[in-house]
From TrEMBL:
The gene is Mtmr12. SUPFAM superfamilies: (Phosphotyrosine protein) phosphatases II, PH domain-like. Keywords: Cytoplasm, Sarcoplasmic reticulum. Residues 173-611 form the Myotubularin phosphatase domain. This is Myotubularin-related protein 12. GO terms for biological process: phosphatidylinositol dephosphorylation.
């Protein structure tokens, strides 16, 4: 049975951005609403531009049904070309991956997106000529290799007016002054210096224009091997210990070259191991963490669990959800990365040792670990502007290859790896474990992950600062040959109005109290004492895991060596690290001090908002973190309106300084899909034991039968 919404009579035209061109379109396309297992849907027009694929129905023309959390750039039925993951055609009920030239055109089109949305379009009622144009147009513009200058980023930059707020308090690290300010903020300016050696990119095109090195490193050393083998400063701890990174030399070289490089490295290590520098610990991340290929493989498996285009698939995977999840290895990779960050934090905090992270290019896993360590140890990085400045410093200016790792140009799948997504997944673990410590919300992290695929911002569309600078000059329509004015993703007003932006800010953030001038010295000393932890455990941890300290001795006596082997398995952290971890978790959390993630067993969770937000079957009615947030925001709104009334009574004037908070009435009607999708109907899970259901899943009458004891949440949640 097909429930059909009549074809639209009035002409609906796409809303085009500056520089956006309509390339092809098809009318009478039927879009399925895959939410309850039926073939319900709506007719409309499917269009492809140089920026996006868009479906337009009669609802697109009216503003009555607008979602509360509306993105001004990418609508509900819009898919940017960079967000398209895979396109399948359905021929006689068989799915086939569409690439390159097509000989036969499908009757259905399924588009899987990188933000995990799935779109189903039926083309049976569309004219044959239009089907050919739209299918070949979509496949060509979203899947074939591109030149960098063909990205919509350049079309938009040359045509859009420059009237945005700009930087939004985010430090961009594009000037020498920004680096000097950061050195001063972290008290690292005594032992480290910002250098201008790479001006004009004379050292290396991979390095930023300005960066920071130990004071004892000479300009000749930096120039000798194009910046390789040079420790580059990331951050300084309150006790003077510093986090450094270094790109290693290629492994396959002739003996004389490798001997010279070894001698060069020995000289560098000796120089930075002498006073006033702390002892140095080196950590080669390429051998102590999973490879980029392993990360890509794990994520590819993991995302398949969420790219669900019908209810049958959902309930089929729900049966074996936990085993499927474990087999992807994605959560284990997150756990290993967090554990590595704890190791580095322990070296800096307890051992007062400098840590040098080594990687081939120092622009992938180095970025992940250095960013995580700073989020864990520096409360400034847990504010919105601080976190954005951190991403600018370590990733955008630091030279992470967003263009290659996200495969924006479809040039090589070998280079693709979700390294930045891995960082966001790790930060999310901390955000959900310690919500009051962060000024931003999980919705902020989700929106940031979506922004990876919106090519109107330059932030995530270049491999290095050099590549961005060299492509900045071009023929701009406005300035007649002047440089392009690229937007930065940190100006959230481009994507969201103030009401929607309120969802990005945490109303329960425990803001750091500003000490009085008279108490400043005492406060600083107290803060340092809170950060520093004793090596011995003061009291047994209440959150330690399955084995309490009091019962360890008894259990070992009863179970003998077998349990000893289990506890001291190679996967367990070393003793000093375990002591550090347990000692920290046995104390009350200081939200402005050091934060250590809980990494034992089931503490590592799936980022439900990002991965389940488009699956109606997975929603919690009136539940999830958004239900709590809705109540809090309602209370804030009430408090603010009372404040306005009080101000009116006192000054007979309305205060103009009240921040807008979204109206969240009827919060009971919200579901865990909010704010990305509204409450939706869903298919009903058969109320049978899993094994029975699996045996009988072909029997339609049993599978579809409603039952008053239906479990709506599913095993998945």
């Amino acid at each position: 049975e097909i429930h059909i919404k009549e074809p639209i009579e009035k002409e609906v035209n796409p809303r085009l951005l500056p520089g956006e061109l309509l390339l092809c379109e098809a009318s009478t396309v039927y879009k399925y609403i895959q939410e309850d297992g039926s073939n319900r849907g709506t007719y409309g027009k499917l269009v492809c531009t140089n920026f996006k694929i868009s479906f337009l129905d009669d609802d697109s023309a009216s503003d009555d049904n607008e979602p509360q959390f509306k993105n001004k750039i990418v609508g509900e039925n819009d898919i940017t070309l960079q967000c398209v993951d895979q396109i399948y055609g359905v021929y006689d009920e068989k799915k086939k991956l569409l690439t390159g030239q097509l000989r036969k055109y499908p009757e259905k089109l399924i588009i899987y997106c990188k933000d995990l949305r799935v779109f189903n379009f039926c083309l049976r009622y569309t004219k044959e000529e239009e089907v050919k144009r739209i299918v070949s147009g979509i496949v060509h513009h979203s899947q074939t290799p591109k030149l960098l200058k063909r990205l919509f980023l350049f079309s938009y930059a040359s045509a859009a007016p420059n009237n945005t707020d700009g930087r939004n308090q985010t430090v961009m690290f594009e000037s020498l002054e920004d680096w000097r300010d950061e050195l001063e903020r972290t008290k690292g300016n005594v032992k480290y210096k910002a250098v201008t050696t790479n001006e004009g990119y004379r050292v290396s095109e991979k390095l930023p224009l300005y960066f920071v090195v130990p004071i004892c490193i000479s300009e000749e050393s930096i120039l000798k091997y194009e910046g390789r083998g040079i420790p580059i400063w990331c951050w300084s701890c309150h006790n003077g210990a510093a986090l450094l990174k270094m790109s290693s030399f290629p492994k396959e070289q002739d003996d004389s070259t490798s001997q010279m490089q070894k001698a060069f490295l020995d000289g560098i290590y000796k120089t930075i191991s002498k006073p006033p520098y702390e002892l140095l610990k080196m950590d080669d991340l390429s051998s102590s963490l999973p490879s980029l290929q392993d990360i890509q493989t794990a994520y590819t498996r993991f995302k398949q669990l969420f790219l669900i285009d019908n209810s049958t698939d959902f309930w089929a995977t729900d049966v074996k959800w936990f085993s499927l999840l474990e087999s992807t290895n994605w959560l284990e990779i997150i756990r290993r990365v967090l554990k590595k960050a704890i190791e580095v934090a322990e070296c800096l905090e307890i051992q007062h040792t400098n840590v040098l992270l080594i990687e081939e290019s120092a622009t992938d896993l180095c970025c992940v670990i250095s960013s995580l360590v700073q989020v864990m140890m520096d409360s400034y990085s847990r504010t919105k502007s601080g976190f954005q400045s951190l991403i600018q410093k370590e990733w955008v200016i630091g030279g992470h290859g967003f263009l290659d790792r996200c495969n924006h140009l479809h040039k090589s799948e070998k280079e693709e790896a979700p390294v930045f997504l891995l960082l966001l997944n790790c930060v999310w673990q901390l955000v959900q474990q310690y919500p009051p410590a962060f000024e931003f919300t999980e919705t902020y992290l989700t929106v940031l992950s979506d922004s990876l695929y919106v090519p109107i911002f330059s932030t995530f569309f270049f491999n290095s600062q050099h590549q961005r600078d060299t492509n900045k000059s071009g023929e701009s329509l406005k300035t007649q040959g002047g440089p392009f004015r690229f937007l930065t993703v940190w100006d959230w007003s481009v994507q969201f109005d103030p009401k929607a932006q309120a969802f990005l800010n945490n109303p329960l953030y425990a803001e750091k109290p500003k000490p009085d001038k008279s108490q400043r010295k005492t406060a600083r000393f107290k803060h340092q004492r809170q950060l520093s932890l004793p090596l011995t455990q003061a009291k047994p941890s209440t959150r330690r895991g399955f084995f309490r300290e009091e019962t360890d001795h008894l259990i070992k006596n009863i179970l003998g060596k077998r349990i000893g082997k289990f506890i001291n398995s190679s996967d367990e952290p070393p003793n000093s690290l375990r002591e550090f971890y347990d000692s920290w978790h046995s104390k009350p959390v200081d939200y402005h001090g050091l934060l250590l993630p809980r990494i034992d067993g089931p503490e590592i969770k799936v980022w439900a908002q990002r991965y389940l937000r488009w699956i109606p079957e997975a929603q919690l009615h009136g539940g999830g973190t958004i239900a709590t947030a809705a109540k809090i925001l309602d209370l804030m709104e009430e408090v603010q309106s009372l404040q306005v009334k009080m101000d009116e009574e006192h000054s007979q004037a309305v205060s103009g300084d009240v921040h807008s908070v979204p109206m969240l009435r009827n919060s009971a009607r919200l579901s865990s899909l909010f704010p990305f999708a509204l409450l939706q109907r869903q298919s009903v899970k058969p109320a049978l034991p899993t094994s029975t259901w699996k045996d009988l899943e072909d029997e339609d009458d049993l599978v579809k039968r409603d039952d008053e004891f239906v479990d709506l949440s599913g095993d998945m949640l």
